[in-house]
Amino acid sequence: MPTIPLRRTLSKMCAALTPRESGEHIVRHAKYLKVLPAGVDRLVEEIVGGLISKRIDVANFSQHELHPKPSDGHAANWIFVVDTLNFCFWTPHNYTKYKVNGYTGYFALCAAINRAMADGLDITNPEFYSKMELSTLSNIFRADDAETKIPLLEQRLECLHQVGERLLSKWQGSFEHVIKAADHSAVALLQLIVDEFPCFRDQAQFAGERVSILKRAQILIGDLWSCYRGEGLGYFEDIEKITMFADYRIPQVLVHFGSLEYTPELLELLQKDTILQNGDAMEVEIRGASIYIIEQVKDAVLEILKQTHPAVDVRNVNSILIDQYLWDYRRAHAAELEYIPFHKVLSIYY
Length: 350
Prior knowledge:
single chain; two-stranded antiparallel sheet; 8 strands; disordered N terminus
């Protein structure tokens, strides 16, 4: 496979702001929220403590029982399939109702894919999923209660068909070829994913600019890096350019730490469980501010570690690990954070 020159990739991204640039632009023009420096400082303190205590570590990903190990031959294609489907697990009026083998949310997705593999389905093979029928996918995602349906099932099938057909027509049916074409550049791989697979093209118009959020495309790269612990297929020389994965749960943690504050208008709307449209200014502001805050935290954490904790290896300090830690924090403190409403969008992008 040909590699993609980094210079050419960066020039192509000029059509839209990068995720980090997008976060800065969105916060600069935000009308419905504001970022609070004191809360950012509290987050920095939390992350520094987590890194020093090893609660934040790249090894945590592959330690989870549902995730593949780097030695698994199917790992890269498993991650690609999972992150193709990694969106929208909440159902109106009951946000943890969809369960598979007792797991909710993203982990219910992982459990469903693993169950399909155990049932003998070749779920990580595009020859299989590019031609999959809706009834087959519905069975793969059957819930524990036999009544609840995973949201956006038809859209999930469309995503699988789209990426499967593209892999077969251009990449010899393997996502590993896409990874290798990026030549160990996370930026190049990000652009390849967005260009090759439109269902990952998580962008919006905001205040006169085309902004990029790219939650699923970036988490795909982050999951590869985490699974392979930054080695082999997971080695990227510019992994620090990947930002956090802006979804609907991390903002709850940011509000909890006092780094993000909503206007009364936005807060009232969220408390009413209003369903927003993808690309709505309020939605874009929440997600863009999330990226901005975590980038600020990352920069500050790196500076503190270099100055006061030189023994900590900063090569693995990035927005991926910070996001993973805060996402786990939200799950561990779910009851405590329940008072903070999250924005709701029926979308394939997160």
